[in-house]
Amino acid sequence: ESAGLYQLSQEKITAQENFKGITEGLSALLGSKQLKDFNKEDKELQNTLHALSGIRKDAVVYREMQATQETNIQKVNPLLLLQEHCNTQKNQKEQELKQLEKNKILLEKEYLLKQSIASLSELRAQLVEGQACALCGSLDHPYAKGLLPLVDDSQEQLSEIKKQITTCQNELRKAEIELTKTNQELALLTETIKNN
Hints:
196 residues, mainly alpha
């Protein structure tokens, strides 16, 4: 037993000498720095690593936002072209509709005039070539000879132009709806770009 105790005490002395040697070696190696200084530097390094990790995450988010922004900006040009096309279509249909309305008014006047001429058959029957007309005083009576303008032709033309006006109005409404939709998309996209 005493041999075992002696051996333990020798191992303890050896361990203490080894620890003292390691401590002296570390002190010589580290110079004047203490362990608490290393702990402080380690903490600072960990904080720096944590901050860099946050910056890296922010950079990833920024790159994603930038990619989204670029995608949104690329969508603007086609929408601007579509907006321009819709405006052109709308303006063309408005001009076409105005012209059709003018033509309709002219055709309505022509139709009424032809109806009026056709309704004067009793007076026309009384006209004598070379004698003055009781209504206008004219000596020439072209319609007395049966050369009456065709009212049916004017009715057909008037009916056709009314169909064209309806078609043009429908096309104009479609162009206005498309333009409104495009303007809304463009406004939304512009607002998205501004906010990012």
